[in-house]
Design a protein that fits this description.
It is a single chain. The chain is of the alpha/beta class. The protein folds into two domains: 2-210, Lambda Exonuclease, Chain A; 225-285. Helix content is 38%, strand content 23%. The chain contains eleven helices and eleven strands. The strands form three sheets. Strands 2, 4, 5, 6, 7 and 8 form a six-stranded mixed sheet that branches. Strands 10-9-11 form a three-stranded antiparallel sheet, with helices on one face. The protein is globular, with a radius of gyration of 22 Å. The two termini are 25 Å apart. The structure holds iron/sulfur cluster. Residues 37, 39-40, 43, 213-214, 219, 265, 267-268, 272, 274-275, 278, 280-281 line the site of iron/sulfur cluster.
């Protein structure tokens, strides 16, 4: 990755951003990259030396690294293992992933994350659960029992004021989020991993512009919305998820027309490091 420094921030920021990323072997995939869309995963790998990022755009990543650095200095308890990289071969691909803490007594794996307070408000933790479940699956394969997972989330945009006045807002800037893993969960994640690995193996043979498109969910696109509008009013009376729902709502409640608001690919626009190498981004998103 090429790190730029447009704001001329102190060199320490640049050095931290350049800090050795773990280099994967040719057939090795990190768990975190398997959780992304196949196109993003492959483009990131193929163009890792050409991808540019400005250090000012990496501050929350640096904040996460700093948090990990402080926590990893703490001594683990007798039955704890911290910051360990796991590797496991599956169908010719090496999976690798680094968990933050494992407690053998509690049979629990823990990961530290920085997140927005919105993550807690919406309560959608499927990505966190899947990541921890894969680590748990790998740990079990290495002979360590795991039945639970926990994410300790540091909320970078937490507001004390909102915590006092808004219902459902997280009360504190740190939130533990717990998961339990059943035998069925382990069976399901094995199926998920095998399917993902099969997709990766097929994708490795394809040129960049033939890679399967990231799904709508992977592009953080919540889909088109249908706004019921009224003449003389700028804002919608109601915004719904389908034309049918909007028509039904308008028939019962009034309104003059339905405006279609196309869904945005938020990941492509703002969060995908590989976007400059993606034909979809260049053709559809980039104006
Ligand atoms: S720009 Fe969008 S479609 Fe392209 S790789 Fe990134 S997330 Fe996927």
């Amino acid at each position: 990755m090429i790190i730029t420094n447009e704001l001329n921030l102190p060199q320490a920021f640049v050095q931290m951003a350049q800090r050795d990323e773990y280099e994967t072997a040719n057939n090795e995939y990190r768990v975190t990259s398997l959780l992304k869309g196949i196109r993003e995963t492959e483009l990131e790998r193929r163009h890792s030396r050409e991808i540019k990022r400005d250090v000012s755009d990496m501050v929350w990543l640096l904040f996460g690294t700093a948090t990990h650095s402080i926590l990893e200095r703490q001594k683990e308890g007798d039955r704890e293992i911290k910051e360990t990289r796991l590797k496991m071969e599956m169908d010719g691909i090496m999976l690798s992933g680094q968990f933050d803490l494992y407690n053998e007594e509690e049979e629990r794996i823990t990961d530290y994350k920085t997140a927005s307070a919105w993550k807690i408000i919406y309560g959608n933790y499927e990505d966190w659960r899947r990541q921890l479940l894969i680590y748990a699956y790998m740990l079990r394969d290495a002979g360590f029992p795991v039945k639970r997972g926990r994410v300790v989330a540091f909320l970078k945009d937490h507001s004390k004021r909102d915590a006092k006045v808004k219902a459902g807002y997280p009360k504190l800037p740190v939130q533990p989020v717990d998961f339990t893993f059943s035998e069925r969960d382990f069976q399901e994640i094995e199926v998920w991993l095998k399917e993902k690995i099969a997709q990766v193996k097929r994708a490795r043979e394809l040129p960049d512009d033939r890679l399967p498109l990231c799904t709508q969910e992977e592009r953080f696109n919540s889909g088109d919305k249908y706004a019921v509008m009224k003449k003389g009013r700028k804002t919608a009376l109601r915004v719904l998820d389908s034309q049918e729902e909007a028509e039904q709502w308008m028939a019962s409640n009034g309104g003059d027309s339905i405006e279609i608001r196309p869904g945005e690919d938020k990941k492509c626009q703002d969060y995908c490091a590989a976007k400059e190498f993606c034909s979809y981004y260049k053709g559809v998103c980039h104006e």
